[in-house]
Amino acid sequence: MINITFPDNSIKGFENIPTGMDVAISISEGFARNCVAMKINGQLFDLNQDIKKDTAISFITANDEEGLDILRHSSAHVMAEAVLNIYPDAKLTIGPVVEDGFYYDIDMDPISTDDLGAIEAEMKKIINAKNRFERKVVSKEQALEIFKDNPFKLELINELDETEEISLYRNGNFIDLCRGPHIPHTGMIKGFKLLKISGAYWRADQKREQLQRLYGISFFDKKKLNKYLHLIEEAKKRDHRKLGTRLDLYSFHDEAAGMPFFHARGMEIWNALLEYWRDEHRKAGYVETKTPVMLNRKLWEQSGHWENYRENMYTSMIDDEEYAIKPMNCPGGMLLYKTKAYSYRDLPVRAGEVGLVHRHELSGALSGLFRVRAFHQDDAHIFMTSDQIEDEVLGVLNLSQRIYSRFGLDFHLELSTRPKKSIGSDEQWEEATNGLKAALDKYGRKYFINEGDGAFYGPKIDIHIKDALGRTWQCGTVQLDMALPERFDLSYKGQDNEKHRPIMIHRVIYGSLERFFGILVEHFAGRFPLWMAPVQAILLPINQDLAGYAEKIKAELDTHRIRCEVDKRSETLKKKIRDAQLVYVPLIITIGDKEKETRTLSVRTLDGKVRMGLSMDEFVTSVSNHVKERILDDTIL
RNA sequence: GCCAAUGUAGCUCAGGUGGCAGAGCAGCUCACUCGUAAUGAGCAGGUCUACGGUUCGAAUCCGUACAUUGGCUCCA
Questions:
Q1: Which residue is nearest to nucleotide B66 (CA to C1')?
Q2: Which of A18, A360, A427, A549 could bond A22 through an S-S bridge, CB–CB 3.0 to 4.6 Å?
């Protein structure tokens, strides 16, 4: 008799030794069909596994995150099997689950995306066969024998801990070395798609074999797959590199790889972003500073960048002295701090700087505005006493929230703690980390902890924003820096008339203005809220005779700082409206004889609605208010 | 930096196997003067990323460089 305890503490007895599946079926057939694996003592097992003694179990179903991971892992096996069926000489290496699907690294001749269709068709066959996944435990000798033709698997087997069980999984004719668990049978993969191929190295080591990495995604139901594919399509449509060209915002040139050129319209958005930033920072008690772009090597040696970051820095010889273009603003900020003597009464000092920094990123890492070599950081350095840490960090979190929510961006927080390689004493780290934790607790939002992921000079909080498509981006960061104040011998006079070392926070909210800009383009899909829109209103005279009158209206709107243009082309009204809509001008104003006679405006918004007979005053007032309040919602009138 | 793919007009893209470079949009000109998502006709626009090579002949084949894209790696 085997007694199984369920999560609700109910107990069920079984005459014979049951498998996990037997237990699931005893609950109900329908439930069993939805089950993927089971969990015993926090460990995952296959459903086909026998339960030999009394125990508590819980089931992982298709609705659980863990269930989806198992499905995708199994999908990787199916893909590998399909590849082997088509390319018998291919050698498998590893096939894990990643955040967005799964992949398998395979040693084979390069293939192209055109070949994916054939692999998918082969996978389809395997899935339709509903092959069961069977687990088998073997000795190391047996494993070495089975995989004798595969040097990668041999390497893995030889590295396994002696105490560890070596398990194989078989489905159909396919056998793979694998810890498991797997779904009961391949038929559970209801929706899958192979997405892309790329090169990867065995063990991520450039000196080792170059492998083909095949990426795929799978779901328990086809609808979810379609939803996912739709999301990818949507993201492609919003691609900031394409929209940037179409909306005439920025461009890239071979003459300066990774260094964006901002066009007039892009600059309108840029300036709107910065103005907003300045407003909020002024309110939050920051001052703004500016430091040079190029500084003497000696400074970088003092800051430690020369030692740690040199390969990413651009340098230049000037009058026999070596200079480096700043990859970060902080050393300049240190010099600024040192220009005067501080009292504890002066602290905290919150010094912002929107600094242009250059980092020589690897050529292969560049990507639109998301990864560039020249960018502006909305930096700020806060110098404070140790008992101000909590309040200051909390202040940064609140400011970040205020700014992100202005764009309709949600976010989550991650705390990174002391890494293995670090400077500073245990007490310093504890004080710093506790300060961050206290601020996080007071802030009250849930946060994740990345143990050992902090910078060598201090712990940090990273802020990850979530855009309209649900994608997350790390933008903001709040880092405590215990290195620089030391290296630059910063101090302030305490109440005790003694010199003290200030604590320093290093923080950004947009992160990189360029990158944040790119994220916003995709977040808004090019339809910026009125306060950011490069052209807020376009005037469309319905015939050439009215062009002069339209110019007069524009001049008047100019005085109210409403960004507007006149489309004087000899095109039909329909055509002009279409063109304006295609570049998302929020307010389209048609000027006809009626409007001229009554001195009113007819305004069309992007939703296609038209408001006729608006007086100039009404229009200016509501637009100005909308802009001044930086309202996200695009119901303007 | 590594692997792979790509690079043709301002933009988006056609141009099997080598034989005088094409379209749509945008632009310009003319006609039309229009009431809420594309009026029509015409014109102009390219050393086919760059530099080498093969060939009687190269956008096309080969090599190198540069750039872009997807990954890898990197992002103290």
A1: A254
A2: A18
